[in-house]
Amino acid sequence: MRRDALSQIKSSATTHAGLWLDRFLPKAGADDQTKAKASLVEEVAGLKVPELYNRVYERWKASLDQDDIMCREATVQGRMIVGLGNTSPIETSICLQHTYGVPYIPGSAIKGLVAAYARQQLGDEWAKGSETQAEKPLNAYQTMFGHPESAGYLTFFDALHIPNSSQPLAIDVMTPHHMSYQQGNLQAPTDFDSPNPVAFLSATGSYLFAIGGEKAWVTAAFAILEKALLEYGVGAKTSSGYGRLKLAPLPPDPLEQFKNDLERLPQHQYNNQIGRFIDRCKALQDSKLQVKAATFILEKVRNHPRAKDLLTKPRFTELITFIEQNS
Questions:
Q1: Do 17 and 47 touch, CB atoms closer than 8 A?
Q2: Does this model's pTM top 0.70?
Q3: Which domains, and CATH codes, for the chain?
């Protein structure tokens, strides 16, 4: 009765992909189940991202704009499937946000991937060690990921799909060729066995990764994550090439770039060029960055042979006042 009632409902622009996948499998006889499942997969893959999700994503991204959180975008190189073995009426599943039905990568999966790569590729300092007794002092692995006696230094956030980076879901197919043999029957597989295509959903597009904690450890975690995403992959079927993502390069640090350019400024060009650096200092978006940049300028000037004369000029007295007022 309920299945008959659901068959009258049609998908729309606001349809939730996860709800549709879990509840709207078409009614079919035993011989048509494969076609019914393939039809459902095709329908879910064609659903659009809810418009509300764009606003939710921007609000979530703004909440990560903190000094102790680093964010980086990563793009799927092909296809990705996280949560393939989760409970599903079509026997294959995928990790979708409960509220909006958009694919994402759980923070637990990201942490597990980084931890696995660290254990297997980075040497003795990254050994997991005893699960009941912490190292004294803690080694790098237990410091980053935690231990029953000590919380880890880092927070691994869920990686959300970046709106408009692609249609997030796609149709995929796996084709077992020897079903009888793979189900444990004694009959040996042969070239006469019939292939059995099975449709399932995979994810595409770009995702925003975020890790929070002490800057040096966050930087180290992203360095490990970058290699792990390319070499190991995240989610299911990684041995078949699924789940590879490429992190976008980090944007240049404006303060570091400012400091490097200032260091290259010859002393004989101070009078002509220092005003340009003061303008760059004022153009920085954050007052904390402005104070640090102004401090770099004053340190540079104080090492000049004519420092006493230069520091009495209005442009430098203004910098000194600005630092005192904002420090």
A1: yes
A2: yes
A3: 51-185+192-247 (3.30.70.1900), 254-326 (no CATH)
